[in-house]
Amino acid sequence: AVSAVELAQHFLTRIEAANALNAFLEVNPEATLAAATQADVSIARGHAGPLTGIPIAHKDVFVTRDWKSTAGSNMLAQYVSPFDATVVERLAHAGMVCVGKTNMDEFAMGSSTENSFFGLTQNPWDLAAVPGGSSGGSAAAVAARLVSAATGSDTGGSIRQPAAFTGVTGIKPTYGRVSRYGMIAFASSLDQAGPIAVSAADCALLLNALAGSDPRDSTSLAQETEDFTRYLGQSWNTQANPSQATPTGQTQERPNLKGLRIGLPKEYFSAGLAAEVRSALETALKVYESLGATLIEISLPKTELSIPVYYVLASAEASSNLSRFDGVRYGHRAAHYRDLADLYQKTRTEGFGAEVKRRILVGAYVLSHGYYDAYYVQAQKIRRLIAQDFQQGFAQCDVMMGPVSPTVAWNLGEKTDDPLHMYLADIYTLSISLAGLPGMSIPCGFGQNAHDSRPVGLQIIGNYFSEARMLQIAHAFQ
Ligand code: GLN
């Protein structure tokens, strides 16, 4: 057997060799090896669980005591938190060994990881392509096998879309399933943490450790402890049976999914979808049909409105959350200033990048007197209608499937001059976040021609709290 220390050393060597990808913002071999040594002690004492000694990387949006927590921003370039985020704490408690902090779009605002103050991250499949974002560092690290799994956060697609672009598996749980305590806030009513890993089975194990209510996050939900591996390898109609589940191994035969109704939102397969993505999805859907599932066309008529609604609400919440970065309490502070107003202005001018400033301006605008009713309140109303669309959809099916992104990963630099163009690429992930539903991405093929090394993700959308079933469905494909 391999010891936790040997495993950590293996991944640290790989991380160093892949330095050019810029997936990691900080590695600290000393801290990693100390944690691995601890894990080996637990193993020797017979206290090991399924995650003990397994390496994990954390998106730099999660605060950590032993590592810097920058959120990809100059504002927090030197920031070290006095406490660990609940996500970090829970995985450490499960015995996982942190190997580093991963790159991300500044304050998780972006879809390509090009908005990081610390430089872009490359897609390991094709170095000319973006890895997606905002959790691009985590996704690239898992895809390049620099770590076994990583944490991500998803406000409007930031776990699902980078997972899709890098050919790995990621799940954004139901809003409130995982604690936001210690996750640097972007848009609090949308932010949700989740795992990025090489398989649905691994995501299930990680979610076992991550999920749970937390008195330190008032929006975390009271919930029964759940074993997210309990349906893995089971047929759709079989009751969960943990003793028969095969959580980590591949099942020999694909389970029977007879009785499973898969809803295909027709708006997700309309003209905006690239032919190469459509064709990979169709092949995957045929596999599900061959397993016994039925495909049903459904409709989510408000899909297009999700872009303006999300960018109004997320920016509004961001402008409020980011007001804490004032140069006084923590983080960057301008060196020279005349008075308090000047301190705020200089600190924020220096500390925030262009995309973050854009969101703060939009957010302050839509919340301002005279525009609040026209934009913010209106967007809140449509948000509710979007959630209702999904409930009508789920009356006809058990789960929905569709693309994660209209295209495969685009080229580095391709959308950096055109923020609106970048926003439009979020069309298939935003409404799930607005509704607070769980969504996941699993790899289902590659693009074509010049893109034949760029992965395609299949999105699985479940109803509230149906993560165990989504993981079952994903696992059946893998
Ligand atoms: N791309 C979206 C945005 O820029 C979503 C990002 C996220 O989920 N954090 O806001």
Quick overview:
GO terms for molecular function: ATP binding; glutaminyl-tRNA synthase (glutamine-hydrolyzing) activity; transferase activity. With 478 residues, the protein is of the alpha/beta class.
Question: Which helices and strands appear, and what pairs or packs with what?
Answer:
Elements: H1 4-17, E1 24-26, H2 29-44, E2 55-59, H3 86-93, E3 97-102, H4 136-143, E4 149-154, H5 160-166, E5 169-172, E6 192-197, H6 200-210, E7 261-265, H7 275-290, E8 294-298, H8 306-321, H9 340-351, H10 354-367, H11 372-394, E9 399-403, H12 419-424, H13 430-435, E10 439-446, E11 455-461, H14 467-477
Helix pairs in contact: 1-2, 4-5, 6-14, 8-10, 8-11
Bound molecules: glutamine.
Glutamine is lined by residues 108-111, 134, 154-158, 186, 314, 426.
Percent of residues in β-strands:
5-15%
By CATH, the superfamily of one domain comes out as Amidase signature (AS) domain
The structural class is: alpha/beta
Q: Identify low-pLDDT runs.
A: none
CATH class of one domain: Alpha Beta
Biggest sheet: strands, sense, closure? 11 strands, mixed
End-to-end gap: 26 Å
- The pLDDT mean sits at 96
Q: What sort of overall outline do the alpha carbons produce when their principal axes are compared?
A: globular
CATH architecture of one domain: Alpha-Beta Complex
What's the helical proportion of residues? 25-40%
What's the SSE pattern?
HEHEHEHEHEEHEHEHHHHEHHEEH
**Small molecules bound:** glutamine
How many helices? 14
Q: For the CA atoms, what is the radius of gyration?
A: 21 Å
